Amino acid sequence: MKKTQTTRLSLTLLIRVLHFAPAREAASTSLLSRRFGALWRSSGAVNLAACVPDGRDAFVRAAEAALAAADRAVTRLTLHVEGDDECSTYSSLRVGDHDVLDAVVAHPAARRVEELRVAAVHRGQPDEHDDAVMDDDVFLYILRFSSLPSNTLRVLDLTRCHNFSPPPPPRTASAAVAFPRLTTLRLRQCTYSVKHLHGIVDAAPELATVHLEFVLLTSDRHRRFGPVTWNTGLRFPSATALALIHCRGEGGAPGRSMEVTAPRLRSFTYKGEAVRFDLTSPPPTAPDTTVVTADLHFTHGLGRCVYPHFIHNFTNARVLRLKANHLDDMAVAEVFPDLEHLRLELDGAYSGWSMAAETAAATIAGLLHCYPVLRQLELNFISDLPPDSSCKNTKQVKHLFQKKCDADFEKSIDDFMRLIKFKSKQRLDIPGLSDCSFACLKSSLRRVSLQFRLGEDSDCFGVRLIKFFAENAMFLEELHILTVETESSTSI
């Protein structure tokens, strides 16, 4: 009996592995042993990859053969087409009004698919694109609503798709929705009208996760809000997780403002320009439905006043991650009463503590005043550190101490100061920080992580910042330090 259970478990795991394997490799496992046999046909997945110019007809035949060979309902369908350039890929996928990928998706064997992933790319295409690709010609294929397995679809993931037609609106209020099970929508490098996007959102009442990356959003909606014109308005009534990564407005030009309505949002990720942004979410009186985690990466902005306006939307968050070009871009002027975890990171273009220590101290002091219950603080000012840390003039030091008693605490600090050649006569206090009182330092702060560059002078601002937290955070349990030497500094 035990042997039978073990065999069944092994077969279950094998089938699960084959579920994610490319179709060609999955089929080739039948040559390994009798045990594998036609096991790949029972995986419930068809993952197809094709290279242009191998041939349009060959790809269609392979796709139809793989779908027809399935012994059980296909629940996962992946189509990945790669060409030498966009023109060859596009011409291989289109014949007049006929779209090859659309035809494969509409195959009868794919009518019960739950996860659909379709991508068309060209070789050498980078993971991230500059503004030049955000135009009306980035799409390579079209999908139609009639070709999608709408009743069973849970995950829809499209790359380089153009504005596939949304389902028709229901004729009556009691009519069934088109995507009753759709929970995840990912669009990457797509061209989409806001109207069509909302058509899908309205047809998917369970849509909880929305990820838009390098998406060109077009809209005919314009209205005045003070001196600013809204050019992008999005609504996701059931979304709990939303990511907007380098999305663009009308005609590919940077939008000056954006408003998002997401009453159930819990997690928000944004990367791009710091445009004027307004998020309509539940009031603070509904704590179970407020945004818990906000991850904001500002590449650049329309003006310094835009940053605090953007961050203002997340005053009730518990976790906030901010990345920008300058530390003072992260300054806020209001209290975040529930924030427990704060991470600040300067973009890779930042070379070190180039700003005056007084400016940096004032910014950090303002942040500490605004987060009265902060438990974990991360300050990273070397985000451009190369993956290979073995370069000649680079040295990393990771220092962790557990504050078991005052003696151990003081010894750990003294050891680190000795390591960086600290001299007792040097000045350690930080004007603007050392003479202030902060609620989080007296009651809640437990973990601090600091990453910065060491210059020729060991009395740099980063070193004094270590001493400040070590002496003033009354309940500090962990202090993580990562330092990197500059080119002109001596080895430690």
Automatic annotation (TrEMBL):
Protein name (database record): F-box/LRR-repeat protein 15/At3g58940/PEG3-like LRR domain-containing protein
Keyword Ribosomal protein: no
Organism: Oryza glaberrima (African rice)
Keyword Magnesium: no
Keywords of the record: Signal
Lineage of the species this protein comes from: Eukaryota, Viridiplantae, Streptophyta, Embryophyta, Tracheophyta
SUPFAM superfamilies from the UniProt entry: RNI-like (SSF52047)
Listed Gene3D superfamilies: Ribonuclease Inhibitor (3.80.10.10)
Pfam families in the cross-refs: LRR_At5g56370
Top-level taxon of the source organism: Eukaryota
UniProt domain F-box/LRR-repeat protein 15/At3g58940/PEG3-like LRR: residue ranges: 103-213
Signal sequence range: 1-26
